Structures
1.
Amino acid sequence: MTEITLAKVAEITGGVLIGDGARRICGVCSPNEPRSDMLCVVWEKNMLEGIPGNIAVLGEKGSIKGRDGVELDRPRAALVSLLPLFDRRRGDSPGIHGRAFVHENSIIGEDAAIGPGCVVSDGAVIGRRVVLQANVFIGKNVIVGDDTRIEASTAIQDFVKIGSRVTIHSGVSIGCDGFGFVPGDDGRWNKIPQIGTVVIGDDVEIGANTTIDRATFGVTEISDGVKLGVHIHIAHNCSLGPDCMLVGFIPVGGSSKLGRHVLAAGMSGIADHIVIGDNVTIAGRSGVSKDIKSGLTVSGFPAQEHMAEKRYQASLRRIKSYGERLKKIERFIRSIAAGFGKEDI
Amino acid sequence: MTEITLAKVAEITGGVLIGDGARRICGVCSPNEPRSDMLCVVWEKNMLEGIPGNIAVLGEKGSIKGRDGVELDRPRAALVSLLPLFDRRRGDSPGIHGRAFVHENSIIGEDAAIGPGCVVSDGAVIGRRVVLQANVFIGKNVIVGDDTRIEASTAIQDFVKIGSRVTIHSGVSIGCDGFGFVPGDDGRWNKIPQIGTVVIGDDVEIGANTTIDRATFGVTEISDGVKLGVHIHIAHNCSLGPDCMLVGFIPVGGSSKLGRHVLAAGMSGIADHIVIGDNVTIAGRSGVSKDIKSGLTVSGFPAQEHMAEKRYQASLRRIKSYGERLKKIERFIRSIAAGFGKEDI
Amino acid sequence: MTEITLAKVAEITGGVLIGDGARRICGVCSPNEPRSDMLCVVWEKNMLEGIPGNIAVLGEKGSIKGRDGVELDRPRAALVSLLPLFDRRRGDSPGIHGRAFVHENSIIGEDAAIGPGCVVSDGAVIGRRVVLQANVFIGKNVIVGDDTRIEASTAIQDFVKIGSRVTIHSGVSIGCDGFGFVPGDDGRWNKIPQIGTVVIGDDVEIGANTTIDRATFGVTEISDGVKLGVHIHIAHNCSLGPDCMLVGFIPVGGSSKLGRHVLAAGMSGIADHIVIGDNVTIAGRSGVSKDIKSGLTVSGFPAQEHMAEKRYQASLRRIKSYGERLKKIERFIRSIAAGFGKEDI
């Protein structure tokens, strides 16, 4: 079990040590389950209430008094450097496992780890230090960049190109045919062949069971630094700019183009042929059916500028009083209508 | 082909035999497709209309007259004991298939069936009578309890712990990294390592292509008796109490806590950091963005108490008449305004 | 690299050649990225603006002037015959790969290609020219028709029957247990065994990571020509008529019946026990909770006839003005109320 001192924590995270620097911790815990042998991570000051004084804390500047701990501007960001120290998971050993199948016409980079049940097809090129965990399918002529990790039960179809330092989780399907059909004269559907491919940049993360379809022709493009969560679908011919983040359960319709650093929250969706600018934020459950200019935050269905949507929703909530007010007005008017020679309004 | 008598059906289900106890049935059918050699299961009395008199029926007490059948309080519950008799599917033979890979440092329980293409990694412990169907990936140090069944193309990542009598269907991903990033100074996303794990209790069922992420640190917890349908996502650090039932297409956001026996219908969703009490019911397509107290039924987006939501929706439906009523009032007022020295309102 | 002349394009697509029939193209491109060595496909006339005159175009009748190209009534439909010429992907070689496991009691049709990591179980029957790409699981007694293609990491459970010329993409789960439980006296969930199966017709396409559950008893039925996109769920005992098209992210609840040629757009959903007629169109994000008659287009949640929903949504958008109008009316009435012996309304 890894043990480090609070002094070391301060050094690694660039934080300020408070109290006993020689105190040792064996892991990280949350305010809900504080442990005296671990370091309790406190995102917000009000979480400190109720945590016993003998618990060491990683917290915001000025938040720690009378206890051991480390203070920083952004405690959550410190986890990036701190957590790897306590990761029990071990790496995968380089080499081609005896139960993997690697086609003789493929190229496997130095120190790559090809696990049991993996299939690397004819013409594929696998970079250095790539990990294919187990039961991963790599189609023909696929290219996988250095230091990329692909976890079990994922399938990468022919000709897909994946960058370096990419992480792809389990159950992902990349490069399947896009969904394109035209009605025939007999009312049946004729399939439009999907002969394009998918190109994925560097430093991309793709969550479990997400799907990315190949282009009808040309490419479906996922730029450098994009982070996709789970159960996402990127349809044929889409293009996602650098550093987009899509949280989960989000379909992006065919040929839609997202600029750089677009954020989309869970259960939102984007129709096909939509153009979205840079730095756009899409709220949870919103449905985007029109182009969105750079810098906007949108919500609702159909999605509109977020403040307009909030006002609209607030106006709907006021409707309950309107019925009552109408009734009162009508009662008054009825009571005076006869005086104006009218039976009713 | 299995054949049993109606007398036997009455005995197995604890029902009351009506008519010919020696009559033999070879299966179970629905009112839509009644067959004279099968037992027709009738959930509701009005389904009986139109079913020919020569069809044997499993129905509610008092519903069967002038035909053969078995009556009980809850016909649907009788299926639990009745259907296994007619299940054509055969069990998987114990033993490690020649095409499975089982690491030498793993432990395989007595009478476990490890199918072709399965991978059991270093340090994993597989319980007695466990079935790993085919192409199942079991990561390092995973623990699987007795009598658990894991179907094809499912991946269980390192250190995940699964209880006994659990059923996990195809395409499931358990223990993938949670989705956690912090923005760096350069606008890029830095990944927060996800070093926790997932703990799944006993008697849990997990539907096809569902995903459960490991905790950032600590555990993502699925308690005993939880039933998850298809295409569900349980994010990092969530906790689901005993006997929760989530039907399908439901994301549960990070760190949310569900009490015992929470029911969530299809396409509902739960945001992150939400606390939901016991015996809560969440209607289909509702979006839960606030904590919910025990015992409540909620619907809508944002989800609120169900009766309030129903009243709100009804008030919206009334709005169509409001425009008309406003116009009439305005017309009347305009007609009298001059008399009060006003041109208009 | 394939190269063909524009004359050949005209011949294959049945279009009219404009300009230089001897000009050679090596592929197809889109108006966003026109290339002089390819054929630019232009769906709509207004896309032609901005495409340099030296680019050859496949466009609508009458749209091409002063450049090389081919004109037809429906340029998009021409892709069905044109794109295969430029497909770089090569077929899979017939034969059983050395790393596949094929049970001795299964039958493999002539010229079938069973790829590495595939598992064909006891009693399965695989048709002629079937392709099982890699790591595909075929359960016991499964039947797969001729010319069907099943891609990597897909699992087909016992007794499922699949027709001819079916394409099933990666990560699909077919024949997993339906989601059926009854509450026990102790508050726990008792599973209703799911002993039925799934029957899939001819010419069906099933998108990546879609799931189709087996029936409780009887069959879940997908008729000829049905096209399912990605992340779709067809629950137990559903029935989809011929040529239905479901785009993506759509759950269809248990026992629902769809007629022929039902179209459902992304993120729509259908509750359980719903009956939908023929030629029904379901708009994106709508939630169907009642039966729908043939020929209707529906939208909204709960879904209703599309024009009624449009009017309803428009009436909601008008509400903002109502508050203002009510205030004005009330102000006027207050100003005259005293004259009628009333303090206020």
2.
Amino acid sequence: MLRIAVLGCGRIGKMHAHNIACHPRAELVAVFDVNKSAAQSVAKAYSTVVADSDTAVFSNDNIDAVLIASATETHSDYIEKAVAAGKPALCEKPIDLNLERVKSCAAKIAGSNVPIQLGFNHRFDPGHKAARNAMQSGEIGDLHQIIITSRDPSLPPRSYLEEAGGLLRDMTIHDFDLARFMLDGDPVESVFAIASAMINPTLGAELNEVDTAMIIMRSVGGIQVHINNSRTAVYGYDQRVELMGSAGMVLSDNRKPHECRKYSASIVEAAEPYQHFFIERYTESYIAEVDAFIDTVENGAPMIAEFDDGQQALILAEAAYLSLREGRMVYVNEI
Amino acid sequence: MLRIAVLGCGRIGKMHAHNIACHPRAELVAVFDVNKSAAQSVAKAYSTVVADSDTAVFSNDNIDAVLIASATETHSDYIEKAVAAGKPALCEKPIDLNLERVKSCAAKIAGSNVPIQLGFNHRFDPGHKAARNAMQSGEIGDLHQIIITSRDPSLPPRSYLEEAGGLLRDMTIHDFDLARFMLDGDPVESVFAIASAMINPTLGAELNEVDTAMIIMRSVGGIQVHINNSRTAVYGYDQRVELMGSAGMVLSDNRKPHECRKYSASIVEAAEPYQHFFIERYTESYIAEVDAFIDTVENGAPMIAEFDDGQQALILAEAAYLSLREGRMVYVNEI
Amino acid sequence: MLRIAVLGCGRIGKMHAHNIACHPRAELVAVFDVNKSAAQSVAKAYSTVVADSDTAVFSNDNIDAVLIASATETHSDYIEKAVAAGKPALCEKPIDLNLERVKSCAAKIAGSNVPIQLGFNHRFDPGHKAARNAMQSGEIGDLHQIIITSRDPSLPPRSYLEEAGGLLRDMTIHDFDLARFMLDGDPVESVFAIASAMINPTLGAELNEVDTAMIIMRSVGGIQVHINNSRTAVYGYDQRVELMGSAGMVLSDNRKPHECRKYSASIVEAAEPYQHFFIERYTESYIAEVDAFIDTVENGAPMIAEFDDGQQALILAEAAYLSLREGRMVYVNEI
Amino acid sequence: MLRIAVLGCGRIGKMHAHNIACHPRAELVAVFDVNKSAAQSVAKAYSTVVADSDTAVFSNDNIDAVLIASATETHSDYIEKAVAAGKPALCEKPIDLNLERVKSCAAKIAGSNVPIQLGFNHRFDPGHKAARNAMQSGEIGDLHQIIITSRDPSLPPRSYLEEAGGLLRDMTIHDFDLARFMLDGDPVESVFAIASAMINPTLGAELNEVDTAMIIMRSVGGIQVHINNSRTAVYGYDQRVELMGSAGMVLSDNRKPHECRKYSASIVEAAEPYQHFFIERYTESYIAEVDAFIDTVENGAPMIAEFDDGQQALILAEAAYLSLREGRMVYVNEI
């Protein structure tokens, strides 16, 4: 049994706490949140304790590992503390919104062999994984194109947007990472992006933020990647990945809450809107990433999403922002 | 070029005339209808002539074959005349609503080698054929169950119902035939049916007619068959065939007018109602059956739907009616 | 927190124990199994205790309710004991394979207001429920036909078949119940069935057991029901429900493990076989039925599947067996 | 009856001849091809005559209109001759591979009111039209993104590629036009493209030709457009259009030859590869464009695809080529 503490008891931390509590090979030994009542509520539901402080978590010998689901600005510090304490960490994305801070964190933990897994949960989605497996086993021949459709169900509140770091660092970061995952070691060479505030132009202008984007990337090996994003897909969280190859294609499509379809005088085969958002759509992925984390810590299994993946995805976001500003294709090595 | 005359210029006759006129190996040499203006309208559209009488068609040496699309009560007579005149015929179903008349017609044409093809167009549907081909090539292993869903888009007018001979002889006849086609030589042994007037009970009571039915049949080889019928599928003509076997399943599903799907805050993947009715849904089948007819006449290709198939389907309808009356499974050899 | 003990720690009991342990409003306070090591393994995984005996469970004041997942022949006894002890029970189907035993159990617990919920989990499937909700809200107009396709992925082992009580009592029982659920209070009036051993005729002959069946039922209100069953759908657990009405249709279709589809030179839109069996397909249903049970016990919510539903489904199975033997439609009131 | 002559009896000309011959409001009065035997074969199949020369077609008073399906380099000349002769023309795309020639042709026919319809048949596809209708009727709110997937089934022969003018002028031209059709009057402002020879790099290098491309465009109104192309989709002709809006999405998806799906121990819901290529996939579109042409000529109906559309699509291709060369976003007004 791996004894895990959860740092951060907001929406995502709560879900991770649940997954750890239900996991047959893990034990939820403590939770912590700067908001004490949030921590207490989670502790009660899963019969565990609230830690006195984050420091107490890192110094506790009865805690084997930590899951970091606290506010973004704490991530790098916690990673550094986890490494210092020799406690493996599964850290929610992003490492930090500032690339320099990510680099300094990288420098600080360099050489350590304490596993730091990044929470790029899309990599663990059963459909996306099946697509990648099919590609790796040669079912589509040589990979030529990757098309990622990634649209959130609705514009987050203004307060969230003010903190989130911008569409490309907050939301597209998952797609940059997923593209890298599908490229399977072939690095991205260049990036082109367009973006604007189409859903809420007023808010966009006030926050200097965009809500709708299209990106093209090319890998060193010549593979073409397209990502399209929107903050408002009224029909539900739209998460598709298409891998086009010389001998076939695979498409990881959206997931519905159930398979009931309706037929009337005006429509046929109509289903309910897609699973609303990441908690529902990526339920299995969140469980699988905890599972993989335990495998890494207990059995030394190779990590599926590591610290450097977080850094590389952020570099792509920076390249895309530069492309936006200059209206040209940006080479990744310019960043 | 096979020179074909079309007898009957109603909705179906008109469509057959069009298909023959467009067929590269056929020529529409004459049309006839007791309603002369209907015949003239078709003749004009396809630059052909109106025959003076049906008799004139059968005696005309410049007519190689006939397509019989006239009123049901003329079918048997026309088949007998076609055989007497040595003119191959493609005759719309049913041969007759009265089994005795069908038997006397069979007796009269016995021994002739003039091809008489029956208009069981469902046998020619690309989807249904693909299902059968998969079964015949062993893809589903041994066939165990056949499920046929067959629902018309709307209750026909009272005048039609008064003449049609009853749901099981008029509409289910196609499904009885399709079941036999899928059974591929294994004869039906027994039939059980329930039916009632659910869509329009008043009309049903007045005409002693049903509009909704369920049937179970078993073949001599033990294969189980289910047919369900309705006269009113508001979502369009519902025509599905499922073949369940020991090593797999095939499903010939419905066909939409196009593949545009809609996504909104209340539904996803919604398509337009299915192709309205047989003229639209079985367009390719009607063309293919004329094609097959030409192959039979010109090259001696085996017939895919012949006179006896019409007779056997009617026998199943009679067995089903007997089952309805007696609330029991009826053996086909009781008819 | 409802304190629940689980009786029976086989495959299903283990799953129920997991669901209770993860449920935020329930606590898994004890488990019991005649196989002590099975009980210990479950107790360890979910940090609970093994009860000394079933009797000890019923007499323990710190246990609020029981979940009965033990062998079928214990169900009626346990139900009677639960009622005697005033402990609400959620009991796996069937109540008993013998209708007389079910009736005597019913007589014994008559008048009690201790909730006894039956484990007809299909009623809790999100897709099936959505179909029923659509019907109840009038979306399909008047219900005319119900078509249930229910096929297991593979023939169970001989040892299971020897104990299971026959296809119609063991497997079709779920479909009889689901038909009743969709009929929504309109009782089944008559039943017709055919069945044979097509998958393994040798085994069928030895055990006097069938593996493939088709059933037609009619309700008092005239609604037509079709059920088809097979013990071997190689493409995965096939669980579909179709409700056909005067103004539309709803179809609760199968669920795939994920939505990855493959495209090659020989096929398009190919998905992986359906979720293998009930544990996977009905995951959400099993959770939902525990949830409903807690609602009933704690808040007096009406039961969705109760004792009498178990008895009525068994009566339909008996009617179907009589129909098989006599080749005729059997009225339910003959049983 | 509109009397139409067909110029060019290759694969496309032959299909147009068939459609005209079958059209109830059109008459195929003559065909012409520099390859006389090709013309004779078509004339025989549809009982029409072979014109002595192209000149003879334009001077024939019994020919009301022409359909131009000859080699690309003849298109501009024929258009000019048609205008001079006062004969409406339906001309296959492209007008010419050279933008200067298109401009000179435009200049020459300026001011004429002889209808010149361009063969952008994708505009007439029932699915694409339904998508556009849904958008125009407000079903998706404000349009934000257009995603066009357009992949041919296989690399054409070298001889074709040598003449075709390059991927973006030959194949993407349809997608540029379709994007413009969906933009519905909002002009394209800028274009970015990447492309390379991934399917056959050797051939690509020899011909300086690409076979795989991705494009992003932005309209003056800010709408984002993505096009992806491949010359080899082994799973069949892949033709999808997605319109994403503030209140919903519509997707015009691929069309299968029939709706038979297969289920086995390794796959479910597998269909046959998509309709092979444009003749099959756009059958209805080709018929509909002839229909629209007749409506324009006989009733003055507005043209759905006109000369200027051909010119504008070519300008987008030129902009894309410039973007390829310079690795930057190109403004359309640079061309």
3.
Amino acid sequence: MNLTDLPTPTLLLDHHRMTANIARMQAIADRLGVKLRPHLKTLKSAQAAEALIAAGASGITVSTLKEADYFNQRGISDITYAVGMVPARLADAASLMAAGADLKIMTDNLEVARAIAKAASQNGVKYKLLIEIDCGDNRGGLQADSAELLQIAEVIADSCASLQGLLTHAGHSYGVDNTAAFEQIAMQERDAVVMAAERLRAAGHEVETISVGSTPTALFARDLSGVTELRAGVYTVFDMDQQSRGVCETDEIALSVLSSVIGHNKAAGKILLDAGGLALSKDRSADRFRPEVGYGQLCDADGRIIPNLFVTSVSQEHGHVRVRDDSDYARFPVGSLLRVLPVHACMTAAAYDYFNVLENGQVSDRWDRVNGW
Amino acid sequence: MNLTDLPTPTLLLDHHRMTANIARMQAIADRLGVKLRPHLKTLKSAQAAEALIAAGASGITVSTLKEADYFNQRGISDITYAVGMVPARLADAASLMAAGADLKIMTDNLEVARAIAKAASQNGVKYKLLIEIDCGDNRGGLQADSAELLQIAEVIADSCASLQGLLTHAGHSYGVDNTAAFEQIAMQERDAVVMAAERLRAAGHEVETISVGSTPTALFARDLSGVTELRAGVYTVFDMDQQSRGVCETDEIALSVLSSVIGHNKAAGKILLDAGGLALSKDRSADRFRPEVGYGQLCDADGRIIPNLFVTSVSQEHGHVRVRDDSDYARFPVGSLLRVLPVHACMTAAAYDYFNVLENGQVSDRWDRVNGW
């Protein structure tokens, strides 16, 4: 199928670029001597997970139990659910385990640990728990030197559940744009979780899994001594947010939105696309280092970058593109096709139920996605 | 069903508030002597459209042909597709008309008008065309005094298609926050399209429909002489974006996201919710007039506002709530439920396949939605 046969806006996945990105990260994990457990929050697709595992991944990471169920039903059962557990979801987690999932759950909260211990003991469910550590991101996680770390481990040790290990995520690596800073945050990420592991081991607990990861730190880590696994997700397709801080090149970005030109507002100096806030998301993550990117980089229908042409603003169903000069109206007539390299791949992809998989410029396949909760 | 039986995050629709919002706008349209053609881009639900039509709406507005098809299949056939037409969609539009839809399409482009005329004549399809006018929003539309306006009308007059009329949207009403400014933009909106209609009539064209609308201008318009219909959408549920500029009160907001507390990061002074960027959208429209709102206003599970508690930042699956003081941790334990009043209802609702319809605090129904393209 040709691109001109697709309705717009629609999501394109460049299979060649994705495969290269997957191979590159697997080689990094292999070199660093750690397992790779890719985060499927970006691709949310069983076909993508199969490609990752075929390339050497040891299992997957997910951000919802709906994702966990989707992947487990499709034969991908080694799953870490890397969002804080709540007691109301323990029954669903138990059902997933009964359905064959080797599920790891996570918390940073003593009360939740007690609820897990209680549910494990009452129902004989051997929940596997990761304790979340905050390595500087200030999202979830305990400080590595906190008292609660040992308290949670003790509560779990006294139950039918088991302590699987520790997990951290250096989300603050998204706030910097140079090699030295990425390397430093990768060390912070490693050091926080290794220190926490040492405290647990000193208190007599086994710590099997010591898990770190974010795309920038994974790509720039030099030494992961003490760490057992790496998680990352957006590296599979990259995006303009990653490009804006030097984590990837535009020709590594494997995801794009195919869009139609639907209008010219010559009085306002704009081309209008049918890819607006819903089709691209309103994520503005590239603003810090490349504010000109706006809501995405324009490419022609074949994926070649169009220099200095960006989605400068969006409304719900309209992408507004400030023209460089009046010749752009003739170059991009109403009805013509353009591609947008998205700012944040995870956010953009979530607006679509499937990927149009491209090989050699043709749509070779359609991969499904699991969205929602 | 009780709220505690719902998985989170999930979308709640307060039926009582929605009904009151619908009645209020219908009364305004009746008073101004115009038809009301609500924009279903916000609710995207057949049950909602039925409620609007039962209250007096003359038809509906949509933003995709997928929406048009969804509504037409459910018996709501008087539809204006208010996004610029492209030639590649003319066959789909013809199919919808063959399936019974009284579809109105729109352009502001002479080349597209020629394509419509050609397709109409070749295939005997009586497309009904609205010409889009830009009244100051700088999105789509011709200037009311432009030469192309008459050229498009002539091209259509010479074809099997028919000129239905004119349409404009004062999206720039979202950029102001006081009655005088809303009233002034409502006059601009009216004057632009009425002037364009006078030019068309002077040139011998019939102009049946003269359509204006945006929620702020619809609510504040004092006189719509010359206008035949009003379009607006977000007034059905409102949101914090509208509240931030004084267009509604928080107790008129009919849409909220039910969310679970999934963590406390006491070192960072945060409560974490399971409603993040995907569940709320990354829309920051309230920033201009109420930057403290961030990504949403927190309410308790029963919908009562919690003063000064907002979703201050988001990552993909996490909403970060800066606590007011340490007592908030005990007040909102992990596992407890909170509601978020969204910043931009249209963007937030698009992350969900259905509404949980609330009556008297109970889930009384589930309404489906049509998302995507």
